[in-house]
Amino acid sequence: MNFPGVLPSPLQAIGGTPVVRLRRVVPAGAAEVLVKIEGGNPTGSYKDRMALAMIEGAERRGELTPGRRVVEFTGGSTGSSLAFVCAVKGYPLSVVSSDAFSPEKLRTMRAFGADLTVVPSDGGRVTPDLFDRMRAEVERVVERDGAFWTDQFNNTDALDGYTALGQEIVDQAGAVDAFCGAVGTGGMLTGVAAVLRAAGEVRVVALEPATSPVLTKGTNGPHTVEGTATGAVPPLLRSGGYDQALAIDEPEARELALRLVREEGVFAGTSSALNVLGAIQVGQELGAGHTVVTVAADTGLKYLAGSLFA
Hints:
Blueprint: E1 19-21, E2 32-37, H1 47-61, E3 70-73, H2 77-89, E4 93-98, H3 103-111, E5 115-119, H4 128-145, E6 148-149, H5 158-173, E7 178-182, H6 187-199, E8 203-209, H7 214-217, E9 244-248, H8 250-264, H9 270-286, E10 291-296
């Protein structure tokens, strides 16, 4: 039967998220701050875009064939997104993550049927050595099972998913003066920036927590902003891919997360609040008459077990 308006697959529900204008948390005299609400994706994260792009890229090249296991290490959202995509497509999935990341994300991976390995953290903090230990677990799965490693930090297929995000911003907001985004794999900032720059002149600003200022100071450190600052400059953050880097205060971002949900109705996590705080700072520098865009990377529903909204 034909059902007009009905999607043939849940995978086609990825994307098409709204952009909203912030009204109350932006100081007077600053530029307009617009936020792309990526919590509207099926698993509540923009990583759905990346997960689908990586899996379908591997399928096109013949690297991923029916029944082959997929594996990745992740701070949570990528694992949830891969678990969703692999469940729909029928691939077995092994995910390596850590107790440094929200239990909601870990439970989501298991709910979609992923085999999950949890690597202990240093007191719940995100540290560079944590990623080294997770990567070692992935290498064991690859060797044992012949699994396909999506390798999100090096996989250029991810950019295909994020260029679609950038095109949506152009279609929804038109020409903008600046775009801000926190750096994890660097794929989102790189993919979106390429589209925005093709549409006009735009300042691209990379954001990171001030406690791990790799881009701004060349040093790293522990932090609790999930999905960001792995302790090194990621390969997908191409040379010249951004114009400026800003280190953002994590406690101030956490306070803003509560203001965003209570004053703006934007329910998102710590990295999203870091994005908005960075966008506000850039907006204050640019001043009235300009427009800054950023992304609410995921839904606040992923952070209810922690202290963010307590």
